[in-house]
């Protein structure tokens, strides 16, 4: 197993057309269907980084800014932003395109956390991630605070132990 991998090695892009069975009575894509597609694409990205079976540990803050419509094309782009011990944060961005009309807009973004597991479902160490571009570095830097925030929200760590969040609050106060 490699000890370090580049963010670009985990890039995944997928395109889907919104079909009648994916929509509500207003012919808009159902939110749960989009979450399913996002989960699959993000999981493939985490697998590419870890070369392991991965499980979804959490999904952060998905807001639907626009609703993809029947016949639209949705494009999902994902990559790992940072790897910790067994867990990886994946950033995913979704675009909706109406190809006949020539329009393309960002529909939503989200952060997924996946944990690499062995054949018995136990967490297993993953390679570190090396960011290269400006955006990859920005996402990498922010990942520690987001990790602590979600672990506090999940009741897995205490706020007093979330040291990077303390620094964040100090920065705001100064
Ligand atoms: C995620 C899971 C593997 C964690 O197992 P665990 O025995 O609690 O393991 P640990 O406490 O050692 O945590 C392992 C990693 O998961 C991370 N993790 C656990 N819960 C998390 C959460 N809610 N959000 C983000 N990360 C989480 C930990 O921070 C740790 O990361 P690290 O190894 O990089 O430091 C386990 O809870 C699980 O299998 N959950 C079900 C996953 C699943 O089925 N998802 C699909 C649902 S339909």
What's this entry about, in short?
The protein is α+β, with helices and mostly antiparallel strands. The chain contains 3 helices and 7 strands, in the order E-E-H-E-E-E-E-E-H-H. A 5-stranded antiparallel sheet has the order 2-4-5-6-3. Strands 1-7 form a two-stranded parallel ribbon.
Overview of the molecule:
The protein is built from three helices and seven strands; from the N terminus they run ββαβββββαα. The protein has 174 residues and is an alpha+beta fold. It has a single domain, classed as Thiol Ester Dehydrase, Chain A. The strands form two sheets. A five-stranded antiparallel sheet has the order 2-4-5-6-3. α2 (134-153) packs across α3. The chain is globular, with a radius of gyration of 17 Å. The N and C termini lie far apart (43 Å). Coenzyme A binds at residues 55-58, 84-87, 113, 115, 117, 121, 123, 150-151, 154, 156.
